Amino acid sequence: MNRVLIIDDDKDLGTLLEKSLTLEGLAGDTCHSGKEGLAALAKQSYQLIVLDVMMPGMDGFETMAQIRKSSGIPILMLTSKSDNASKVHGLRAGADDYLTKPFDMAEFIARVLSLIRRYTRFNPGNEAPQQLNFSGLSIDLDRHTVTTGQETLLLPPKEFDILLFCARHQGKILTKQQIYEAVWGEPYVYDDSNIMAIISRLRKKIEPDPAAPTYIQTVKGIGYQFNTEV
What we know:
23% strand; 2 domains; Rossmann fold; 5-stranded parallel β-sheet; Arc Repressor Mutant, subunit A; alpha/beta
């Protein structure tokens, strides 16, 4: 059974999230501080962490920094509705996704299941994934290289980061704003031409036919999506 670790000082919310996970056939454990969460993670194997940003003592960012020293487990961060800076900081620091409070429970469960599905697909042994493999394309997280059917490429940082961000969110439609804030780590400034230019360069390097992309596909009027069929 897949297990989820909830780290949130809101006890009522923790109880509600646990009950919702149980209804989906998942096991949930709740800790009310960062230190408790780290202790639980050391004793038990989990497939996902739900981590609140605002906690007394060790906050969500400090807790995530400690987790990321030894684990690539997916982290779903919970932020307040107006705290855009925390969303950007969280994604840049290692979070895989975020939800703003208050949130719809159906959306919470959908995010949880999606993150667990991707984690177990890329990482069946529950260790930090070092390589993402797709049909005709491999992304090596350690070496920051990409191998196509033709060659192994050392990509410039922004090209690699955009590719990795899209691949980690395979199937999810990503807006240019989401990509910008995750990769640049700062609030979005209308800069679509920069993102488009980088993706164009990236496609020329990894796509069999850049004019008809196999991997990073354009969703007209919205943004981009990493193909679910590769």
